[in-house]
């Protein structure tokens, strides 16, 4: 079942008898999953499971649902901001679907998110390992890091953190209101109370009423953390061949787009903001493109006589330049724009980590 079909099932848009029976079965599985997560969280809350403290401050970025909420651009923003303040940040992540044996076109290894971060924040050490306590010791001891960014860390409670930043996608905040596998929630919304700051992503793509409803939901689940709002804005195009194009250079052109990310609808809206004639072909999240996929995309673009093909940076870094035979292929480079709350975030960061020196 592809992602769109799965979302139709979880949301209840599919109403046939088979879908209802399947939702019932998934609901039963969600009870078991929820019980296990509740017991685990209680064990950490009551000190039955140990929390290990790193030798330096730890900032966690995470979410309460599966799928894309924009952690990667925010992790890059945070790492670069810390560098500008004179710090030596290090990135920690599990490395979901990491393919270290396969070199990326940029020369870095690891999964797609690591390859993106290697490009967006060059020089920032990044370790991908299931045991993030062990990774934290390596980054401090071997790389001299004085602050760690725990990527996708909200549910990883074994490593203690000094600031918990929770990302909530304004377009799909609560994963259809059910725990996995019935919905997309990784844990009960009571877990929202652990957040120090809530960052609502893609806030510009949600209506005022939806944003207000989201804030009311946070209050209802006793999440009293300050709420920030950010948008992800396209900045430029990054070519598979290393070239850079300005966005206005696409005016009047016809394109084809594809992506394999957790929230293809967010990318669809980004493409709409560019005001070009462009169809989107989504793939599953973390999709690894083989020769057949790329040949089919190139053929489709050539038949449609497109001027260029667009994708996300997360997808572009997985494609070797020699494997692409279609029209020029570019990633839409996305930047973080704070709509509200940047100052509360930077104030918290400065209190946690006073500036050392200006970066050279």
Give descriptors for this structure.
alpha/beta, 12 strands, 360 residues, 21% strand, 10 helices, twelve-stranded mixed β-sheet
Question: Could you explain how this protein is built, in words?
Answer:
- There is one protein chain.
- The protein is an alpha/beta fold.
- Helices cover 34% and strands 21% of the residues.
- It contains ten helices and twelve strands.
- It has helices spanning 3-11, 17-45, 71-84, 112-120, 132-143, 208-220, 264-273, 291-303, 313-316, 342-352, and strands at residues 58-63, 89-93, 126-128, 147-151, 163-169, 197-201, 226-239, 244-245, 254-259, 277-282, 308-312, 329-340.
- Strands 1, 2, 3, 4, 5, 6, 7, 8, 9, 10, 11 and 12 form a twelve-stranded mixed beta sheet that branches.
- β2 (89-93), α4 and β3 (126-128) form a beta-alpha-beta unit.
- α3 runs parallel beside α4.
- The N and C termini lie far apart (50 Å).
Topology:
Layout: H1 3-11, H2 17-45, E1 58-63, H3 71-84, E2 89-93, H4 112-120, E3 126-128, H5 132-143, E4 147-151, E5 163-169, E6 197-201, H6 208-220, E7 226-239, E8 244-245, E9 254-259, H7 264-273, E10 277-282, H8 291-303, E11 308-312, H9 313-316, E12 329-340, H10 342-352
Parallel strand pairs: 1-4, 1-5, 2-3, 2-4, 5-6, 6-7, 9-10, 9-11, 11-12
Antiparallel strand pairs: 7-8, 7-12
Helix pairs in contact: 3-4
